[in-house]
Structure formats: C-alpha cells, structure tokens
Amino acid sequence: MKIKDIVNRDIVNLTNCEHEPIHIPGQIQPHGFLIGINAEWKIDFCSENISSYFKLLHSQVLGKYFKEIFGSIAEEEISAYIKGDEVQDAFPLEIKLLGRLFQINIHKSNEIYVLEAELLFADKEGLADVYKQTIQFVSQMNKTKSLKDLCALVAHGTREITGYDRVMIYRFDEQYNGEVYAEDCREDLEPFLGLHYPHTDIPAQARELYIKNQLRLIVDINYKPVPIFTVDDKENKNLDLSLSILRSTSPIHVEYLKNIGVGATLTISLIHHGRLWGLIACHHYSEKNISPEIRLAAKLQGQFITSQIDIRQSNDENVNAQKTIEALEQMTGLELPILQHSLDIIINAPQLLNICNASGVSILYRGKIYKNGLTPSDEEITSLTEIIENKINNDIFVTNKIIEDFPEIAENSNFAGIIYHSLGVNSNIIWYRPETILEVNWGGDPEKSIIYDSNGLHPRNSFEIWKQIIKNQSTHWAKYEINSAAQYAHNLHNQLILIMLSEEEEKYRNQSEILKETNSELENINWISTHDLQEPLRKIQLITSKMLSELDVISTESISNSLQRVSKSANRMSGLLEDILKYTRIKNTRETLQEVDLNEILESTIKEMSEALSESNAEIESEKLPEVHAIGFLMRQLFINIFQNSLKYASVDRKPKIKITASQEPVLIHDKYKVYCHWVRFSDNGIGFEQKYAESIFKVFTRLHTQEHYTGSGVGLALCKKIMQAVGGDIHAEGKPGVGTDIVIYFPCDPEDTLLPI
C-alpha cells in the first residue's frame, strides 16, 4: 500500500494570491490529531502526529478499519454521536481512545467523516460556571440600547469568559475594509479601537471560510504544521478542511500575526443576513488554548451580537429617524393652495431639509428653480438635471460621491452628495449635502498591506498609525433618509399634478365664462344697435325734417334750439360708439401682466380728472395702495371709470367724497374656485343702490336710472368688470340707498410673490 501526504506546497504570488487554496492546506495544528474515515469505516486520512498520542505511526493506521485500531466500543460511540449523516456540533464527543480521554469534533467533508481529537481538558471549566457568566451577560445586554454599546459589552464579556489579552469587535464596510468597532484589552496594551484595516488583511477566500466555519482557533502562532497523509489510490486526492478546528493557517496570515506580536488567536464569525458582518477577534500575546465549554460560550457571544444587529441598528436609526419622520409628517400635513406659488411655501419650509437631513434642496418646475439652503447655482442645477436625465435611466438617483458619477459637474461644485427624484417632464426635486472631509486612522498604510519579493507574497510588517484624508464625498445617506425623501417626492408629485389639473380646470372655466360674457355682449350690442343708437338718430331725423318743413316761418332762435338738440343727440351717439369700441377692444391679456404700483395709477388719475373733481368739489381720501399684478393703462381706465361713476351718482345733499382703502400685504382671498392676493375698496357717499342690483350693474348697457336723470351709456361699470376679468381679477359692488356705494376690486396672485400665509 502506497502512502502520500496531501500538503499544499504552492508558492503564493501576485497571480494566484486571490485564489490561495486555504481550505485544503493538507496540514493541521499540532494540539490535536486528525483522522478521516470513509463510508466503510476505513481510515483514509491520518495526521502524522498521531504518534504523539499513541504508540502508532500514521502508516500503521491508514487503510485499516477504525475498530481494528480503536476498538468496536469506540466505533459504536462515534456512530451514535453521528446519528446517520447528522453531526452534533454543539459539544464535542468525550471518548476514551486506547486508554486516554479525548474530546473529538466531527464533521463531514464530502464522503469523509473527519475526526479531530484533542486531549480532554483536565481543569476545564464546568458548564455551571459558563452558564452563570452567560446569564449575567444577558442581563447586562438587555440594559444596552445602541449597537455600539452592545458590542462594547460583548468585547468585555468575551474577554472575561475567555481570558484573552485583547478582544475586538471587528466590523466590515461594503468593501470589507475593517474597523475596530469595540475593544477590551489589558491596560498595558496600546488600544486598537477605531483603527481601520484594508480588505486585503482578510482576503475573499478567508471571508468565505469564516462564513462556513464560525469559530477559528490558533493555539500557538509558532506551531509547526503537521502534514496529513492518505492512501495513494487516487490522483489529486485531497481533504477539504473548511469546517476543521485544527486546520493549519495560511503562511501569509501566520506571518501577519507574528508581525503584530500575537501568540494565539480566537476568531468568531458574525454573520448577518448571510453576509460576514464582522468578527470577534481575540488576541493573546503568548500560547493559549481554551476548553470546548469556553469556546461555545464565546461563540454564543457572537450569536448575541448577530441576533441583535437589526434591532440595535433599528434603535440607533429610530433615534435619528424620528426627526425625519416628524419633518415628513409636517410637510405632508401642510394645507397648500393648489397654485404654483405653493412651491414658495414648500421650498422655504425648514422641514423640507430635515426630511433627509440635507444642507440644501432645489425644486425645478416649468423652467423655474426654487432653492433653499446650501445649493448649487441655477446653471449648475440645470446642467446636473440634463446630465442625470441623459445618463441615468431611473427616476431616482442617490450618491454621496457625485464626482465618481459626474466628474464634469462636480469638480468645482459646493456639493458632494445628492438625492434626485424626477417629478415628471422637466420637473425634479434634489436634496444636497456638502463635502465632508474625513480623517481615517489605518493600522498601517493600506496601500502597502502586501509586500512582494522573489520568495512570494508577505504581509506588511509596519502597523504604525497611518492617517488618510478622504475628500470628495458627503456623509452617507441613511436608508431611512432615502425612504423619507422618496415618500415626500411622491407627495410633491401629487401636488404638482393637482396644480396642473386646477389650472386646466380654471382655464376651461374662464373660457366658459368668456363665452357666456361674449354671448351676453352680442345680445346687448345687438339691442343697443337697434334701440339706443337709433333713438338719437330718430331725434336728429325728426328735428331736421321739421326744420325743413318750416323754413319759411321758423325763427332764428328756433333754428338755434333745434341745432343744439341735433348736436346733443349726435354727441350722445358718438359717446356711445366710443364706449362700445373701448369695451370690445379689451381682450384677455393676462400673458402681459406685470408689477403695477397703484399709488402711481391713483396719482395720474387724480391729475387727469382734476377739472372734473374740482367742478364737483369732490374730496379724495386714500391710504397707501399695494403693488399688484396687472396692466398699467387698463388700471388707469379702471380708476377713471370708478371715479366717474361716483361723481355721476353723487348726492345733491352733500359734498362728494371718495375714500380708498386696500390690503397692505398679500393675503389669500378665496372666492368660489378662484384665489386672489390683494383688494382695493372705493367707498363713496353718493346715492347708492339696492343690493339686489349688485350684479346687474356690471352688465353692459344696464342702467338703474333714466337717461333724463343721469346721462351715460351704461358701459362704465361693465367696462370695469371686463378690465378686471382681463387681468384675472374680479370686481364687486356693495350699495346702500341714500348712503353710498362701495366698489371692491380683487387682484390675482403674482407668481413672483413672496410667501403668503395659508
């Protein structure tokens, strides 16, 4: 029978370092021996050091049936422990082999049962002591709130249970760079807490083994590896030791541990959602082994952490997330007008930044940019929007390293992180965070973590603190911040849809009103053309006919009177035609609205009507008027018509007085489906009118009084009505017979207005 060892002797170099077969080293540590049994209970693998425990050579054991060497009783005990294909790995099997007591860990590697035997601990701790320590730990664990506090407690508790000189909780980031997240060590040792280590310290294949085998023990870093031998009956025959307790460690890792002065280690995997979250790394500065009971207790410490990660992270996040939740609730609870200027209210609300703890925010809607906080320029926002829309096939984009995604815009920008949400065509909301310069302390230069020479690869031998300054990135956006931003973006999208629907509804409503008004105008114009225009014409015809028939007898005085009557009728017809032209020329001109100072309009109106006001001995009293969104020349025509109406219907019992009051600040005025922001009231002390005529007086050619008593075409107030409709406003009248008339005009909201109270 030919026998061979299965030691892996490949030299690790730059080409194969990432694929070093650390799971099949073909060697074990010497504090125990290993045998591998096949399905027929023949010993197919055996470590060379079996001779250190029995008066047997590995060559004498290989190829023999297990009971031939260790007896049938031992075989029955092991068979009962295995229970078919299931292996009890909570506690090792305590068994007597050839008169000596051992603890045996058993696992299955492909078709081979691997038995790893260590001498039974003579002074092993009792289960009662370990149980007591564990109960105390659980009691203390329940008092911690944050994940960091729990990890610190686990580090302290693991060191108390195991007795190692240093216990660290090592946490990985997304790239598997590690950070010493918690630590408990001897007072005379330099602390490693907060130090970072590159992902190359624990390569991918090592991380994979940590997931498969959650406890790893090196009793003496200066051990001499023991080769494993097998019967040479197959080519490339080997033994997978991924689940082994005694497996020999990679020479590079051993050299690494020697470089930092470690004498023994215990490593416990922290696995969260199938991923290696971190490690409990225990270091001792001399040789050290621990009993199965302590190993199990230490393993439980790892279970305590992994079972609490979600809960503790949720607790940590809940404390921070409460602020964002409150901000989100306040923003979604705002009672906003369904108008575009509601975006002014939204953008200036401080809660909009608190939704995701941003330093700035911008909203792009219909080509206009609304901003608050620390934001880029309008040009940068426009450019960023175009780049994102062209490069990102998604309505959502989140990054804390904008320079990696869009270096062309991030080079000179004042932000490093964004949360972008599309709100539809040419609309978006973007939250911003500035660059956060971080100082990271590494346990040695991460760029020199591996040294290559003619003898292969070696780990670094310098672990002096190496400071790294990290730029061009913001703090990470937490998941709850991203979710909160997404929820509000959805809410804002709905608000914009409501605004568009409301505007369309208003557009159709205005068109319907204009059509209704136009039909009414056509009816009135048709009536005036057949009545009011014909009436003075008939008078002219009658007078002239009479004059012609009496040419021989008519006196000069009679001719003069007749011609005066003809002139008066012609003037009335001319005035009526002029008013009709004015009325029909007023169109819906809201597109040309601009800021108009009504104080200037009032001043020019008084100046223009100074003669009429002086003749009537009228008194004008006015307070400061607002700036409104309107058209200047139409406002002058409006004021003139209102003044003329007050003078025309002045009371004969008192001196005419017109008082003008107005809103001093923008204020939302809801009227049916419309919203206005300013009002101006003209109050006179004229003859007044019955309130039931408040609407009809604004209809074209409508008169409440006869032509004999009060002259006019009946177009004046109708003209006022049409002017206010043209600028998107409204006009109302309030009258009391014998007391006077109030004319109130309402102006639309200016899209550029500052915040309005809700």
β-strand percent reads 15-25%
* Content-based structural category: alpha+beta
- Cα(first) to Cα(last) distance is 95 Å
What is the highest CATH level, the class of the largest domain? Answer: Alpha Beta
| Tally of helical segments | 20
Residue share in helix: 25-40%
CATH homologous superfamily of the largest domain, by name?
Histidine kinase-like ATPase, C-terminal domain
Which CATH architecture of the largest domain would you pick? 2-Layer Sandwich
What does the overall shape look like?
rod-shaped
Mean pLDDT: 80
From the alpha-carbon coordinates, what is the Rg to the nearest angstrom?
Answer: 47 Å
Tell me the number of strands. 31
CATH topology call of the largest domain = Heat Shock Protein 90
Overall tally of domains: 4
**In terms of per-residue confidence, which ranges show pLDDT below 50 for 5 or more consecutive residues?**
705-713, 754-758
Largest sheet: 8 strands, antiparallel
Task: Give a written overview of the molecule.
The chain starts with a strand and ends in a 10-residue tail after the last strand. By secondary structure, it is α+β, with helices and mostly antiparallel strands. A hairpin with a 3-residue loop joins strand 30 (730-736) and strand 31 (740-748). Helix 8 runs parallel beside helix 14 (479-530). The chain has 20 helices and 31 strands. The relative contact order is 0.07. Strands 1, 2, 3, 4, 5, 6, 7 and 12 form an 8-stranded antiparallel beta sheet that branches. A 6-stranded antiparallel beta sheet has the order 10-9-8-14-13-11. Strands 25, 27, 28, 29, 30 and 31 form a 6-stranded mixed beta sheet that branches. The model is unreliable at 705-713 and 754-758 (pLDDT under 50). The protein folds into 4 domains: 3-119, Beta-Lactamase, CATH 3.30.450.20; 127-217 and 244-318, Beta-Lactamase (2-Layer Sandwich), CATH 3.30.450; 333-435 and 472-498, PHY domain (Beta-Lactamase); 588-758, 2-Layer Sandwich (Heat Shock Protein 90), CATH 3.30.565.10.
